[in-house]
Amino acid sequence: MRCLRELEDNAAVECVLPELRKEKFYLISGRLGNGVSTTAKSAIKRFSCEDHDWRYQFVNYRDIPSLTISEKTILFVDGWFGLWNENPCEEEVVKQILESLRRQVENFQHCKVVLGLREDIYEKYKRIFRNILPVRSRLDLDVSRVRREEELEGHFQRAFESEHCKKRNCECKGLNFRRITHRYEDVGDHLIIDILAKNHQLISKYLECENLLETLVCHFDALHKKKRMLFECLMYIVIQGKYKQDDIVNEDVKDNFGFSITPGSFKKCKSLQKYTKDMKGTELVSVHGEDMVHDSETGYLVFRHVFLYLAAFHSLFRKYPKKTMKYCNINAILQIVRPEEILNEEGDTIKFCIKADNEAVKFFYKEVVKQTPGLEDAIKDHPLVKHAIGTEV
Ligand SMILES: [Zn+2]
After folding, report:
1. Number of domains in the chain
2. Measured in angstroms, how far is the CA atom of residue 197 from the centroid of ligand 1?
3. Which of 150, 215, 225, 369 yields a CA-CA distance of 20 to 30 A from 97?
């Protein structure tokens, strides 16, 4: 086996390596799109290249209970509190899984765990992570910026050069590295560069509003007018969370949202590839780590990046707030939607949430929570449910 230095290898990976050699538990945090999992995975691969006896596994936190760990295993665990954003009702599950992780790792002399967490989720729950796991060191990718400045500029140059834009008067011509970084954003610079480099039509909107989420939400909004089939395919994936290749399109969803797509639309719509990727059922289990049994050989379409899903969800909600609350997969609702006014609760600092008005919150409670056996009990501590009950007269 050759140990090639990969492109992602950078100063952050160099920071992580010596810590990995010393510590059993290590935590990497950073804004969405700042390279938390890329950094962790590259460092882990390098680590196991140095010592071939070590094997590594990259897992979602919900896979921990079914995992068999052996001596000389190094794990990367992410997905804490949900695939797309943060579901506060998962706190107990997170605690139990951290406990089980600690016990399993303590059984072996040589076993290591790297946790990957989004910065705002880490801030909200750091006490839980610190109390349960003996994490002695952590890398915060948002503050270790200085050493990465040059790399980021290199990344910018490569990303825009590789696209060879032929469009005259395109906004990309006047763009320079400093115009799109060096300002505070909820998402990492890597993601901003990647998305703008692949979609030059977004550049002017981004420079105007300086907010990547807003830029993308407007882009999805515009697809409704300009490319209806693409819009419907994308929103169908938002609603269902994924699309099983060749599967029938749910009639309830079609009727209520007024969609006219068929399984053929997903094949016909070539530009869908810009936003989505194919995944095997087996890969999905670990990523979507949930209830459903997936057909392992079947292909599924999912969003290419969590952030694209979030932006598309915002666009869907903006257009159809009540319908989204009723027909969209419950995980996305619990992770992304919060009541507009939060009753008796200190400010939640989780990013990318949508504020739903009282009407939408009550509608969700009446039409979904009350109609699904066992659901109210399972999510009784969720702000949406607490709010709906609190505002009942
Ligand atoms: Zn261009």
Report:
1. 4
2. 8
3. 369
